[in-house]
Amino acid sequence: MSTDRRGFLNHAALVTAATTLPARWCRGKDLPVNRKLKMRFAVASDLHYGQGNTPYEKMAEDMVGWMNKEKENKGLDLLFINGDLTQDKTEMLLSLRDRHLSKLKMPYYCNKGNHDYLSSKKGSLTESWKKIWGYDSNHTVVHKDFAFVLADTSAPAKSNVYLAANRDWLKAEFKKHAKAPGIFSLIHIQQRKHKVAGWPEHGVSDLTQIEKAEAVMDLLESTANVRGVFHGHNHNQNSMWISGERRYFFDSHVGGSWGAAKGYRIVEIDEQNRMMTYQVNAEKGEEINRNDLP
Ligand SMILES: [Fe+2]
User: Fold this and answer.
1) 3-13+35-251+261-292 belongs to CATH 2.60.34.30
2) Contact predicate 150/111, CB 8 Å
3) How far is the CA of 112 from the centre of ligand 1 (A)?
4) Which of the residues 49, 122, 131, 135 has the least number of beta carbons within 10 Å of its own beta carbon?
């Protein structure tokens, strides 16, 4: 994918509401309202549980409430928590898990964010992601033939280093699931550099990571059955960006001290594998944008 073409498509991403997108990228509103759903999942991120001067207990409780309500009202197969579950305090991962996430009424999977610190103490309950959650920080979940590939972009205990995802690992996972009707990739840190080609800030920025992260985007954009990529980290973003023919989505945030209205993202897949996604402004209880996943 040439940089020029990327630039063009990134520009297109800025005007997603406009009618200039190809017809097959019609908005999800065009799908029949009464279509039968095969799967419904949610993506939420950035709880920052434990951050000083924020009502973090309430915010975690709110998220659990939103998700359980989704499950009760419309059904929810899975929840993905896309990084920054906590705010630099290792032991908070356990408190969040045991005090709040244990109340979720659907299976949930956690992606590691740059504020989620592991302990360097050998034998500690938080010495590895696997010890806390039962799976590694690079991890694939399969549900109803769909693959959800969660890729780690964080240093073990440093919030200011944003890493490229492990391209070799991603490539091997994509190969394993080449016949899946769809792959969704969850990556906490936006792999496009801060403000390049019209993209928002807070992307990969370290000079040693930029090229590697672009190679990850090339892989995401050249793997035919990757249907959507989900990022957290940037609390201001709650909509879609396009690069190549791939769609990248943000979901605002659940906690922390800054950002757009708090909320989460829903993805719905019907029996013909038609997919669409929308963001929910949970503060107002309303849908705020909707896009197809062609
Ligand atoms: Fe983050």
Assistant:
1) no
2) yes
3) 9
4) 122
CA of 288 to the centre of ligand 1 (A): 23
Distances (CA, A) of 161 to 63, 210, 237, 257, 268: 27, 12, 20, 20, 33
Band of residue 172 on the pLDDT scale cut at 50, 70, 90: very high
Distance (Å, whole) CA 95 – CA 217: 34
Over residues 125-146, the pLDDT tens digits come to 999 999 999 999 999 999 999 9
Centre of ligand 1 from the C-alpha of residue 209, in Å: 16
- Cα torsion 91, 94, 96, 102 to 10°: value is -170
Give the Cα separation of 60 and 49 in Å (integer): 7
* φ, ψ at 56 (rounded to 5°): -70, -30
Compute the distance between CA of residue 152 and CA of residue 160 in angstroms, rounded to an integer: 15
